[in-house]
Amino acid sequence: MQRCKIALLLVMFLSVLSHLPGEDTWEARTSFPARKVYRVILEPLYLTQLSVQVESPVIKISKRMGDRFKEGDVLVQLDGVIFLGNLVKAKAVLEKAQVKFDAKKELFEKDIASHFDYADAKAELAEAKANLILAKKTLEMTKILAPYNGKVVGLSIEEHELPKSGSEVIEVVDDTVLLAKFLVSSSLLSEMVIGNPIYIKLAETGEIVEAKISRVGAVIEPSSSTIQVEAEIDNADGKLRAGMSGKASISLEALKAERSVESLLDFYTPETHSPTGR
Question: Are 242 and 44 in contact (CB under 8 A)?
């Protein structure tokens, strides 16, 4: 009984192989799926940890995990009262330095003030201008802005907490374009042409999506004779998620053949083909 089941399995396997495209040889049929199908993982175009650049309490978190945002949106707002005060002060100092410089300049042109007094007033004015620029920039740092269109991955801070300068507070991702990364044999390098399509069967959904080859590695890994390839997937509708995995091929036929072989292997399980199996 066991031999009959194994014989039936072999017949089904040969039937699957007979439908594979390519050269009409046993070698071509049995090696095609292994050579043409690659395991891939989908990664985001950008995955960024945003940090605070000034030390101040968090007064508002505008976007949280899973929320979408547009480039320039305020994600996290720090308390900026002190920095606003510094800006007002810097403007006043600049006005005063400007008045002093204008007066010294007029006196210098009339040979009343010395060159040293004129140069000193000029230096004070330049310093006041620099301090105003720094005050404006520091106030802007109290807002953590979205660097691109995307979604929030997670937060490592909460409102009313005081993060240290330089600490990471929010992670964001741009998943409007996903990257499928995979390794191929260096012997197939000529088939990896930038702009050419590849097809990916997702493990999570079973859906087949199209991608475009965007980058091919510059160096072949000598120990494995493989080279890395990246392909871009348009995910503007947001249906796909970074971290998904699957199998990729330059032809739909290879994916269908892979699916047929997997179905056959699923059929032949230890439970259904054990010596005591019924």
Answer: yes
Q: What is the distance between the alpha carbons of residues 56 and 33, in angstroms, rounded to a whole number?
A: 58
Domains of the chain: 2-46+172-267 (2.40.30.170), 80-141 (1.10.287.470)
Q: Which of 119-128, 154-163, 164-173, 186-195 has the lowest mean pLDDT?
A: 186-195
pTM of the shown model: 0.68
Phi-psi region of 160 (alpha: psi -120 to 50; beta: other; left: phi over 0): left
Beta bridge partners of 143: 77
Can you tell me the mean pLDDT for 229-233?
92
> Tokens at residue 169, please?
């507070």
Query: What's residue 256's pLDDT?
Result: 59
Structure tokens at 156: 């490592």
Single-letter amino acid code for the residue at 86: N
Between the alpha carbon of residue 10 and those of residues 13, 27, 34, 145, 259, the distances in Å are: 5, 16, 19, 61, 17
Partnered with residue 208 across adjacent β-strands are 201
Q: Please give the Cα distance from 172 to 39 (Å, whole number).
A: 26
d(CA 258, CA 270): 21
| CA dihedral for 66, 68, 72, 73, sign (positive or negative) | negative
Task: Give the number of residues written for the chain.
Answer: 278
Residue 109 near residue 98 (C-beta atoms within 8 A): no
Please say whether the beta carbons of 159 and 60 come within 8 A: yes
Match 């269109």 to its residue by tokens: 149
